[in-house]
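Sample A.
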Amino acid sequence: MKIPKSLLIDPEKNSVYGAFAVVVSIWAFSYSVIFGQVLILAYYAVWLPLILVDYRRFLRHLSSAWLPLLFAAYVCFSVFWSQAPGVTARTSVQYFSHIACAYIAARTVSVRTLTIGALVGIFVVLLYSVKVGNYSEDVLDGTVNFVGAFASKNQIGFVGSLGIYFCVVFLAFYRRGRLSFILAVPVVLLSAYVLVASHSATSMASIPAVLALVALLAMSKLLSRRYRRVIFLIGAGLLVVTAFVALNLGLMDFVLGLFGKDSTLTGRTYLWEQGWNTVQKSPILGVGYAAYWVQGFAEAERLWNEFYITTRTGFHFHNTYIEALVELGFVGATLVSLIMLRTLYGHVSAVIFKAWQADSVILFGVMVLLLIRSFVEVEILNPYIMGSFLMYFSFFKLARLPVTRRRRSPRPEPADAAGGEADWPRHARRPAVADQA
């Protein structure tokens, strides 16, 4: 039996396969450490073979992906100055292939399908963690936290926060009848339970802020573009002023106290200091990708010992930018920051300055969540991590794919009023309707 290509690579028709591929990916991101390489192979198996179905689809507009490709190339080339070239060579190839899978996913899966697959995958992942039911004691603050089948409370907290986020945006933008609501309720309840039980301050503090921002962007649909622009500029200015005042009045310490944290963020500030000291030794290029936390290296062993990491693996500086500075220098930190900022600006500008689209609102919310977490976690620099997959998926969704035009169309398709070309539509065969300013 011949399977139509559209059931695999057409975002309008591959909802079943696309959601399945997302479920497999989330399971691999969560539990590949437990179940081994078979999950990583399954992750590759659901994405990479799609290139063979229609390779022209992925070569089209490949130039729009130049920034992540440049960063991936730089990561791979860091093997030439790495202090652990064997580790860098293996991990950089994994990271490059991980980006490739995100690129394929962005070209074949719609945001709606991603959302549905994420809900199913997160629900299954959290169910397994509840079944395992492990708790872990934090030796630094003395608390006992639920970790399930994960290695830390922050990892399971992140999954729980994503479960809440995708449930909310699914019900807000993609709900179809009562059945959607009934199916989403168990996911949001389980995610909320896991989030509270994990005591992950980062996750609990970030998800309300992101949902509030998404709600504001959703309400902006009622306004014309002219008013959206004005309100956005005023809001951005107020946000900067509020953040500045909060830092100077000590409100940050008050917020941290609500979550049982002090100004040191449970030793994170000490880690940042140690990382910055390392940066001074090789500020431009760094020590090499994944070449710092290597068993047998003196500095890594010292920090593992100080923070009671008996496994001597799976640790980092708890700050994406310091981690990037240490491993990849100012060049690598600049590139990954540009990817983050380009993705954020691309999606918010699509909502504020162009035709309002739910897809951009959802992906912008994902990026804001990753941005907040990037200052205290490292989730976009490693392969086989949900955070890095979502970031590159969101970046590649910025590409303007050509609209499929019907032959003998009785009238020309409308163009975007702001840019003069069709906006990248969620439905490839439906012309984008220009928003009225």
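Sample B.
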Amino acid sequence: MGTQYRVCIVGCGRMGGTIDEEVRATPHGALPYSHAAGYTAFDRTELVAAADVVEEKAQYVCNKWEIPKYYLDYREMIVQEKPDIVSIATRPGNHAEITEFAAENGVKGIYCDKPLCASMEEADAMVEVCEKYNVKFNLGTQRRYTPGYIKMREILESGELGDRRSIIAYSGGSALWGYTHAADMLLFLASDSPIEYVQGNVDVDDADFEDNRTESDPGIVMGFIRFQNGINGISIPGTAYEFEVNCSEGTVRALNNGLGFYLRKRQGQFNEILEASFPPYERKSGTVGCIEDIVDAIDTDTETQGNIHLAHRSTEMVFAIVDSQRQQGKRVSMPMENRGLYLGRW
């Protein structure tokens, strides 16, 4: 076993340490799911403390996961415990300030739950501080770290389905709290290409944009993303997180929030696009995969799979869709100009 890394968690709510209780009886999301559960399951991380401004929450999570100490102030915790890795599991309004404080106080890795932050000004600041202190960063968009979706991308990049033409996300939800997952998967399935421009439609009162700060986290209705590598990304409302990639020689689709995958390839006597077997893959926790990836990046001084630059890119996609609505559906070129647009009241 390699180096053992000390971990502190900031935020003792659902993703910090209690969501496993909710999803245990469902087929979605291989356990462990919460940050605390993921670190407990991985033998190279040691949970040394957790912090929350609500003492009862901090006590509950520490008792549940046998974390030896809790704090009410995350700054005091980081200074006193000197963790190698910090998990940020709070609402997005303070993600940038926690990231900055952790990086400036010697943290080597950060696992930040989605969404990344509440404005692109904050996202820019997070990139700057992670670059300055060489912090290994992953955003908690767990599909990126799960074997089924990884296999899906491997099929696409192998060339066996030909050229990728479009990626469809059957997803809606609030821009930051829900759509962040869809944005990251659109990016992931497009080989993490930079984005040329975005257009979108958002469920929000246009008068809400008067102060460049929405009162709520507005719902995404539809989105169009043009990637620099020529792939088109499309978001339409759906009943589950499903993603379909249409290629010149076939299609591949993630079904029912990753419970299954469907592959069709051009084949047979008439060269039709017919069902084919999706390759076998391991069912594994995306939370543990995310943590393992951070540890490996620290070990080898390499980038993580969901690093701060990719988190910044998918987040900018979300903000650009909303900003397109603010501009009455106009195309928003990247990088977007309106860095101060703030979503929600956190």
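B remarks: The mean pLDDT is 95. The chain has two domains: 5-140+287-304, 143-284+312-333.
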